[in-house]
Amino acid sequence: MQKALTAVIVFLAALLCTTCNQGDGSGDPEMHQGLIGAWYHGTDLTRIGSPMRIAGLDITWDVISGRGKGWSAQWEGFITAPASGELTFYGECERELSMHIDGEEIIHVGGDGAPDSAIVRMKKGELYPVNVRYFQNKGGTPTMRISWSWEGKERTTVDPGLLSFSEEQAGWWNYMPDSVSGKAETLNSEVVPAENRIVYYEPGRFGGWPANNGAWAWGNEILVGFELGYHNADISGGHAIRDDLPSRGALARSLDGGLTWQVEVP
Q: Is residue 131 within 8 Å of residue 75, measured between CB atoms?
């Protein structure tokens, strides 16, 4: 009887301990570095695009890595306080930027790009929910930078090592870490010879987005869909197609395994 009673007490103590540790996230082994979110085709967080992770809060998107002249994005996660007391956060950007900590907006850089700052009381080592939003509603070079300072510490960019997001947040945004895709390296693979071939080229015209239109292959026959329009060298980023002239879908067909191509307009 005494052994049974002891077992019940141990079980209840273990259950109580487990209940007390749920939900605080402090011991979560599945935390990822950076912040997670998505970019949006619209300039007002509409028409969501693909998941987007950022490693830090000092970013300049160039023409290649940018999303065009008009887009927006938001990221969430946690920020670990580097010190106790009052910390000053500073926000700078090309267009518009906001930052929320623990559900409260502390920084809002308006459309004129004027810097903003705010003071937040924090406790060293504690995790605080954070949300960062960026709006690129015109052309230019998309840039954002969030820095901080506190007593005894000069202003510096927020330490990327103090930004994190949970496995649950990663799942909500359908984020797949690079380590997951890296598993493909362990599969059986075969190296085959390949060479680059021009499928379509005509001066003054634009041909692109085959991934949006599809590709099919039957032996040596290959059919690729793409968008056919007029070229526009847009140095501010985005797709180099003129939106003031007509465009249409087109097909490119090869009968010799991709060596030569013939354009067809259905």
A: yes
